[in-house]
Amino acid sequence: MTAHPPAAAIITAGGIGRRMGATTPKQFLPLKGIPLLVRTLTAFQEARCFQSIILTVPADHQDRATKLLHSHGLASACQIVIGGETRQDSVQAGLNALAEDIELVVIHDGVRPLVSQKIILDCLQAASLHGAAIAAIPIKDTIKEENCGVVKQTIDRNNLWRAQTPQAVKVNLLREAYAKADQDHFSGTDEASLLERVGHPISIVTGSETNLKITTPEDMVMAEALLATKSNPTPLFKIGHGYDAHRLVVDRALILGGVSIPHALGLLGHSDADVLTHALCDAILGAMGAGDLGRHFPDSDPQYKGIDSLKLLTQVIALAESLGYALNNADITVVAQRPKLASFIPQMQKNLAAICQVPSSSINIKATTTETMGFTGREEGISCHAVVMAVSA
Q1: At what angle do helices 117-130 and 36-47 cross, to 10 degrees?
Q2: pLDDT tens for each residue of 268-294
Q3: What is the 8-class DSSP label of residue 269?
Q4: Could you say which DSSP state residue 302 is in?
Q5: What pTM did the predictor assign?
Q6: What pLDDT band is residue 22 in, cutting at 50, 70 and 90?
Q7: HSE of 13 in the Cβ direction (CA atoms, 13 Å)?
Q8: Which three-class secondary structure state does DSSP give residue 360?
Q9: Pairing between strand 132-138 and 52-57?
Q10: Are 117 and 43 in contact (CB under 8 A)?
């Protein structure tokens, strides 16, 4: 983001919330255990781009607001200013409290607690470049004009937007607009309406349907649902495929899935040549877009000479975790003419599941032959395919 002039935020919290049907003013009501106003102020504090945050409240709510800021660790970041009878009066009081070096101000409703960092910063940046900006969303519904309870006409919605906050503006422009409104005894519904009267263009920043203004009990229900979705986001899934093959030779142990299997021949390789575990590792790395086993554990590196491949799997799982993913399940097919592997599969599943931190049932292992065809059928080697699904943690 391009650097912007010194900025401050004014958070208005003067409503009494008659439509909420509660005795407590809506800005102090809890949303998932945290007051609406605290959530709003925290969003602006975390933006880390404001020299000051000014909270405007009615005089009879000053003590309550002060205690709220102290109890939630916001007292040092916010300045409380007594607001007026209207929103316009309250914002004027906030403007009067600004430090002289502040050039940009962002005004936001205290009961829009789900505002995103992106919207805050986008509004600030647009105002820095163009003088003034508001968050708004395009009208999606058909708009009807009414007269005496009867539809008069349908309004063209193509150029209609629903205004939200934040609304950001250069301080000198807003002071000019307020002075004109005072002179004309004009009362606007928001800061943008004052700027419009004096001919200042206002850029539109795309807001969000989730940037709710809490006005009714239904809004609170929607906000709780949005927070629940945010705290439990839809998981992301990634799929990976792995393949490996090793030659069968004498004087080598046959190890598959960390299980030592009695057989006259074993698999040749720089490590223990556990072809099954290697295929699983490659599948996980593939899901992560992280290359293959050879990139991470090259056979030219002596530290991997004869290494237990389960140790390699442990490191691959750790890599996936560092990228925010965990194994969901794996489907593995071992291709070998001999020996018969069915009796060893449960222990293989147990070994791999323990490292992958999943139930054994999430590691499906199958063994098949090629009916004596190909290098596996001639018992020259063993190959393995693995497919995995990883899920965001």
Answers
A1: 60
A2: 999 999 999 999 999 999 999 999 999
A3: S
A4: G
A5: 0.64
A6: low
A7: 38
A8: helix
A9: unpaired
A10: yes
Closest by CA position to 220, among listed 31, 40, 64, 374: 31
Q: CB-side exposure of 68: number of CA atoms within 13 Å?
A: 24
pLDDT over 80 (residue 257): yes
Each residue of 285-315: b (16+ CB within 10 Å) or e? bbbbeeebbeebbeeeeeebeeeebbbbbee
The total of other beta-carbon atoms located within 10 Å of residue 382's CB is 28
Burial 84-105 (b: 16+ CB within 10 A, else e): eeebbebbbbbbebbeeebbbb
**Gap between the terminal Cα atoms of the chain:** 29
Q: Which two tokens stand for residue 301?
A: 């590196």
Structural domains present in the chain = 7-231 (3.90.550.10), 237-392 (3.30.1330.50)
Dihedral (Cα; 155, 160, 166, 167), 10-degree rounding: -100
Say which DSSP state 234 is in: P
- Give the DSSP letter of residue 292: -
| Six-digit token string for 64 | 């309550």
Question: How far is 194 from 183, CA to CA, in rounded Å?
Answer: 12
Q: What pLDDT was estimated at residue 1?
A: 45
Say how many residues make up the chain: 393
